[in-house]
Structure formats: C-alpha cells, structure tokens
Amino acid sequence: MNSIYSLKSKFFSALLLSALLLSSCNDDFTNRPPEDSIALESFYATNEQVAKATNAMYNRTWFYFHNKFFFAIAEVGSGNMMSYSPDVNAMRNFSITGSDGELLVGWQSLWANVAQANSIINYLEARVGSGVSPEVLQNTVGEAYFMRATAYFYLVRLWGAVPIIENNVDYVNDPLINTNRVEDVYTLIERDYLTAIEKLYDRVRSGNYAENAKVTKGSAKSMLAKVYLYQKKYAEARAMAEDVISSGEFKLLGGAQLPNKSFADLFTFPNNNNEESIFALQWKNVGVYGNASNCNTQFGISNGTVSTSNASYGGVFGPSQDILSLYTTEDLRRRETIMFPGAVYPNVLAKIGSDFGPLVVPPADQIGGQNAGAAIKKYCIGIVNGNATGSADPWAMMENNTYIMRYAELLLIHAEAILAGGGSTSDASALSSFNAVRTRAGLSPATSITFNDIFVERRKELAFEGDYWFDLGRIPRAQAIAIMSAQNRGDRVTAQSFTPEESDFILPYPTNDVAKNPKLTEPPVPYTFN
Description:
Radius of gyration: 22 Å
GO cellular component, one term: cell outer membrane
Protein name: RagB/SusD family nutrient uptake outer membrane protein
Family: Belongs to the SusD family.
Signal peptide: 1-24
CATH architecture of the domain at 13-200 and 510-521: Alpha Horseshoe
Structural class: mainly alpha
Domain RagB/SusD: 276-522
C-alpha cells in the first residue's frame, strides 16, 4: 500500500522530501486522487486547477492524524472515551511512550500537513500560468497558510516545543533540527492565520452546502480567536469572535436563524458543510485507502448480531463510564452524542442478523465494543443507505465530514473571553452567546455564568470532537489532575481510575525520530522570523 509515509531516509523524511511536491508530483508520495496527480508543468494553467491544489489538504494529509490518533489522545486521554484495543488505549492509563505506533503516525501526519502547506506557500505563485486569476491564486495560498497554522496549533498543544519549518528545502541537506520555543510556535500560528485572513475569500455560508467546503476569512478568524484564548489574550479573542459573530457568516443548526434544523443534523451526511461548519475535514471515497473517515465503524455497534457498519468489526472506541452521566435527560444532545440501551434511531440503518432495519440499541451487555454498556452516536451514521449516508469505500470508510471547529464553539469562546477578560458573570453579550448554545440543546437559558459553567458546557457540546483533552490542558494542572483522577476509566462491570502526572499532558516525541534527530530532546531555541 502506497502512503505518504513510504519515503524513509532521514528525520522528517516525509516532511523534507515533500518540498519537492511542486517540482515532481510523485504518486508514491501523495497517493492522491487523480485530480491531484497531473504533472506540475501543465497543472496550474487554469483557475480550476489552482483551486484544486489544496484538495488533498482537506483529507489525505490529515488521515493518519484523524483515523485513530486524534481520538486515542484527545478523547481516551481526556476520559470521554475508553478502549481496550491495544493500539489506542495507552492514554486510558497514561502509559503512552515514544514507541507508540499511533503516536508516530499522528506526528507524521501533522508534519505532512506542514510540508504540503510549505510547498504551496513557497512555490505555487511561480508555477501558475497567465490564465490564472490573482484572486484564485491568493485564496489558494491563504488556504495553505490556514492549514499550516492549524497543524502547528495541534503540534504545539500536543508536544510543546517543536521545530518551526517555513520552507522544507532549507533543511534537505541538514535535517537535524532544533525545536523552537512554545511562544515562538504560537507567534507563527498567529502570523499564519492573520495572513490567511488577508488572502482568503470573504463569504457567508449558504444553504448550498457544496459551496461551503473550503475555509474562508471567517474560518481563519474563528481559529485565531481560539488561539488567542489558549494564550489568555482575552481581549483579542473577544474582538476576533465578535468580528465573526457580527459578520453573519455562520449560524447554529436549530438556532434562531435555522429553526428547521437541529443539533442532530450536524452529524448526518446530507448536512456536510452546513452553515455551522467553520472548518471540517472533507472525506472522499475515491477507492484509495486513506481518503475517507473510519468513525462510523470505530464508534458504532458490532456485537455479532447487530452492526451499524459495513465492516466486519466495530466499536473500537466506546463512551467512558464518566461521560454517561454528563447529560440530563432533557438535554437534546444526549441521544445524539451517546447511544444508550433501548434508544431507537429510525434514520440509522443497521444490519440485524441477515436483515436490515432501523437501529434499536441492544441491552447494555449486548452492545459489544468495549463493554461500555453504551456506544458513541456522533459520526455514527449506519450501514450504507443511499443518499442518507453516501457510499463506503472498500475499507468501509465513509464521507461524513469531521469537524475541527463549529460555530457553537466560537460562541462559547466569545462567552469565555468576556468572562476571563474581566466581564461580569451576567454580561449580556456573554450570556447571549452561551445561551444560544444551551437553548439549542433544549435547556433553559442561564441568567449568570461562571468559567466552570462554560467549561462543562464545552464538554457537553463538543464531546467526541477532540477538544476536551486540550481544555483540560489549559486549566491549572492540579485541577485537571483532580478531574481526571476522579473519572471511572474502566467499563460497565469493572471500575478503574488512574492519576496522571504533570508530565503526561505533553506527549513524548516519537522514539524513531529522536534517534534520527537527537536535537528534539535538546532545549528549545528562539526562532528568528523574517
């Protein structure tokens, strides 16, 4: 099987060799769909060809980050999910090491994103024909800056100090690279998002979902608001969030502006690229491994009699015992986040023995998977069922998008930035944003809020979307450790608890890459920006 990881020679070999992307579009490297494998000399003659230059960066380069690693760290690690599967369970008891296979491919995937973004940023402009519009070229480069910033935002939150690489070619002859300070990595991220804001198209998300797939100025502003929040730059986070809110680009499905939609619609295939989607990975079934999403299989039910997937297995991840009691019964997010025994999902087609029919969740001891007594509903869309689900590829992977950021999160960022920036617990603007998320879930509006209210609301809203680990990582360590130590990280029969150490909040560098580049373990150095 070809993959972006088949190029092995030196540290960051996939990263460094990918600098040649724009001079040699090698299928062994990219393994991309046919539309991305045209020889460069003739590729960038038209606007359409330039616009397609970033297509693989919405799926292929993110695949190994997303397939298991993302959930194994952010959800199992945070205590939202649990798994006994040996390739994804190390963070359940905080035993992950640099030799972990998923750690390595997650790391490599993020660097592949950096690499491809660098190729476009540094070389695309010199390789377009006269028939290409400057606006199209500028937008495409803006997408690359956005993707590089997003990859680095994950790298710095997961590993802390990492190398800053703005042009891969600079390191081809000397791939021994120092890490750079965390504050410098954040400076790069801010600069990249600000450049993306300058270059990307400005638009309002419409009901024509096909037009909403790629990122915009509003996407970059939203992600930058989150970056500011993580650095405790609350005034900047608030201003950026308010800029997005006032633009009207995004809307809550089931909110006041879209009352005919609902929270449940967010995770269905026909609603890919809806009005709430700020940035989502765009999975495609092209018959090549590594371009579609495995969530439907890994989150669903597979007990030998009932299956929600076209695969022969399922339920690699289950909900933790801790999260089963998170939601009140009146919270509309409860049944759309977790599948509890006896729940009926008329729109989810399941295989029941040799027959097919609407999913009725089996009893707790028959759900299968991780003996959690429940299953994960988000991203579980069921057996292939025409336009309701779209198709599956030969590995049972499907095209339902994965959110990196939704408008609901931006509203919660806005509320938190106001409060943390010295605002009142009854600030009208903060309450407006907070309550928009809360009332969409069918809950009564709050009249005052605290940081803890927002912290818990974020967990409820964004469970299984890869954020709770990072939320725990940005509160005081003692508080995070207390929360995680109190979680039941076992199954429905056997309770287990584990206490993380402070060092567990930063991942180890992959052992293979440390051996090739010992500078990874040296103290980080300042980075000089041009």
